[in-house]
Design a protein that fits this description.
The protein is of the alpha/beta class. It has one domain: Rossmann fold. It is about 40% helix and about 20% strand. It is built from six helices and six strands; from the N terminus they run βαβααβαββαβα. It has a six-stranded parallel beta sheet with strand order 2-1-3-4-5-6, sandwiched between helices. Helix 3 crosses helix 4.
């Protein structure tokens, strides 16, 4: 069975059990999954704590750590994936990697430069509806910019779910939305393999 090599980046909460569980789910489907720890072992109990850690490390350093973790694997044609903050990081790396095979975003996106190119890059986004971190006007503009850059974008919205609805340890968790997300995402990854 063909498989993808996936680099999965954690949310602002850090590399918590839910991230390992997500990676295990992808591995059980036959994919090779790497989960870099961009926080050097630190985790957060609240989103506020997570944002403090993120700000303390700094966006530039987080990207540097993500690149360092991904670079040795990039000749394989990676699928970049991320949860919330990790989605932002995954998007930045995928758009900079001409060999990227796909981009799977769960709960988060990132801005992109007008000059960004993503020629026929398959992109799938799963996001709550509504999501305070990914409001409608932002998502509409993001979608148009990604399409203009050349990406093949699919967006899946989950009504009533909280921001990080795939994490069973958080109040945002929505079991039905999480299962629907993983079902669609695994189909996407199978197509990329």
């Amino acid at each position: 069975m063909p498989s993808s090599t996936i680099v999965l980046f954690h949310s602002a909460y850090g590399l918590r059990p839910a991230v390992h569980a997500a990676a295990d789910r992808l591995r059980a489907a036959g994919h090779e999954v790497h989960v870099p720890d961009l926080y050097d072992g630190r985790t957060a109990e609240t989103v506020e704590e997570g944002m403090e850690i993120k700000d303390e490390i700094g966006q530039h350093e987080l990207l540097k750590r993500a690149i360092t973790a991904s670079a040795p694997l990039s000749d394989r044609g990676l699928v970049y994936a991320g949860l919330s903050l990790g989605g932002s990081i995954a998007q930045n790396l995928a758009l900079a990697d001409g060999k990227a095979r796909g981009l799977l975003l769960l709960h988060g996106t990132s801005d992109l430069a007008e000059s960004a190119t993503a020629d026929e890059l398959p992109v799938q986004l799963h996001v709550a509806d509504p999501d305070p971190f990914e409001p409608d006007d932002w998502l509409n503009a993001w979608y148009l910019r990604m399409r203009r850059a050349g990406a093949e974008v699919e967006v899946f919205r989950y009504a009533g779910a909280g921001h990080l609805y795939t994490d069973p340890e958080l109040p945002d968790y929505d079991a039905e939305a999480a299962e629907a997300t993983w079902s669609v995402a695994l189909g996407f990854l199978d197509e990329l393999a």
